[in-house]
């Protein structure tokens, strides 16, 4: 019987690897917000329509692309209702991305530069019910405060978390004061309470957005408010994405447009529609309610053309095409502006293939023709001629560090006495791993880039004394699965808490223990595809590593399947087919997507979500471990890597697997994610004894043919080179405060504790006097390949240790 060709698998290397890393199979992890009410839909549309209408008028005398020039276009005009103005602006300037230095001029040309709206501009005469915000400040739920009885006053104050102790007159005054605080004040995006760090955010600084009769907001905040009211409407995400693009925040534009694209895929792609129950109905209803929020012409009483179209056979599906085109244009141009050339090329080709209209195909082709020579000109910057770039960085574009994001308060003064004292208290005085205090955090105002935190001795220190000890609060342990002669070789299990090696059979023994209810020394993660294991407890009295982990960092991530995340960071295998010998081979490596920080990012999210149970407004970039680190004002002339997968796709997928609604919870907005990634990039420390030696930067990883791979062992150089560059990364926030000094200048050295493998030690290499700064080498003192570029990339700025610098050393003379 002849075999059906569709029943046979293709031969090896005949299928192109996926363009982006795998995504998790999400189901019911996220609890979506309730369906949108008709009143809320009207409020959301009001926030959106005021700036969007000005955007339409901003085209001036120029003919828009989507114009009523023929009977066909006239009939199609309602189809463009969700994205008409953004699309017309994108098409007008579609050939090249906006240059970062041109955004002010372009923003002025959009018609939105100086436009702001007050509380009355937005809500006046609209008939919106905003609850207590617009209620008479002398009434509570319609009842006069002056007529309320004592118990009613106490109940009302208790609901507001205000003291209800006192006389009736005091209670009434307290309630009136609170009512006046919120009257005609629309506040959203509450900020972290950082008063324990000495950062006082008064009544006006507690929210990122506040609308009053005196305080007006601009287009970006208007779009943000629309999103917060109606988070599943891709129209609002697109409009804010374009607003970010116009302000040259290209990374934020990609984040918003990506979320708009996810919502559109739920609407139009049957394979996505029912994967996460509830999201499809909410997205459909959000778009439907947006169109119906303006349903009749007030002059004639007739339904608008968009509403008539909505009532036809395809409903909201009529409106998706223009919306999706505009989204893809924003993504393509933003990636080009970030110089993410690989991602840009993928998305540009995708734009041409998926949008079957001649006009858009021509736009995409013309742009690619214009961009191709620019790409060829700029790409060599990360070629073999730039050896300071690791392999995982070469695909990445660049985001500048010094420019603050719109909703970041940027009110942290790291040189303030109270901030410095708090840093000393948390990372030195309360450091349980440090049996003595020989140092403190100090401010050095002599640095070239302004005030810089440093560590100074609080007493005289002899040579070879231990000065500082720290265990990592944030860690990323990548499963270093390897191939050897076509077979997967699992790495030796290590304790996730302390990195001690575990004996053979540990997983089987403790998997059985979990089934029997023994969770003191392990957790249910031991049985997962990517097992997380912990050391056996030394005795019944001491805390087990698993208990320590559950107290410090292992929370919502526990028990979930994270194999997809590991696969997003490492080489991917497939089965060799149609040839001999058979076996597994590496098809590609997702390390190329600059995803190396993803496991660390998961830990930051997990810790933040746990702490938000008692501090509901805590922002992820402002947890203690990250707050103490440098921020945009310290990143002058410094750039950070950016890829679509590493900075947007994977972070959002991590959040959703942890149960976060990425459309509604803007405490984890794109700008927060980018700040976290920048802080981690600047301060992560690799755990690998080999990396404490002079190292050679690997910037190329060529994958041998599958038929060759199955003959190689895991130790063969051609195969071992495909191992991820870093498989264990840590953040040590206290250690990060030690500044660098080049050889002959530094007075301390650092390394890992042989007893607790991931416990970091700092010790003196020479006598240090009280009050003297303790400085360590960030680069191995004997590294012969360290260059000025290497040093500046590690430090983020020119070295200020006084020299001679590591790249200026003369080679030792040969012995005679």
From TrEMBL:
<dbReference type="InterPro" id="IPR001214">
    <property type="entry name" value="SET_dom"/>
</dbReference>
<feature type="domain" description="SET">
    <location>
        <begin position="437"/>
        <end position="779"/>
    </location>
</feature>
<feature type="region of interest" description="Disordered">
    <location>
        <begin position="1"/>
        <end position="23"/>
    </location>
</feature>
<keyword id="KW-0489">Methyltransferase</keyword>
<protein>
    <recommendedName>
        <fullName>Histone-lysine N-methyltransferase SET5</fullName>
    </recommendedName>
</protein>
<dbReference type="InterPro" id="IPR003034">
    <property type="entry name" value="SAP_dom"/>
</dbReference>
<dbReference type="Pfam" id="PF02037">
    <property type="entry name" value="SAP"/>
</dbReference>
<dbReference type="InterPro" id="IPR046341">
    <property type="entry name" value="SET_dom_sf"/>
</dbReference>
<keyword id="KW-0808">Transferase</keyword>
<dbReference type="InterPro" id="IPR036361">
    <property type="entry name" value="SAP_dom_sf"/>
</dbReference>
<dbReference type="GO" id="GO:0032259">
    <property type="term" value="P:methylation"/>
</dbReference>
<dbReference type="GO" id="GO:0045814">
    <property type="term" value="P:negative regulation of gene expression, epigenetic"/>
</dbReference>
<feature type="domain" description="SAP">
    <location>
        <begin position="145"/>
        <end position="179"/>
    </location>
</feature>
<keyword id="KW-0949">S-adenosyl-L-methionine</keyword>
<dbReference type="GO" id="GO:0042799">
    <property type="term" value="F:histone H4K20 methyltransferase activity"/>
</dbReference>
<dbReference type="Pfam" id="PF00856">
    <property type="entry name" value="SET"/>
</dbReference>
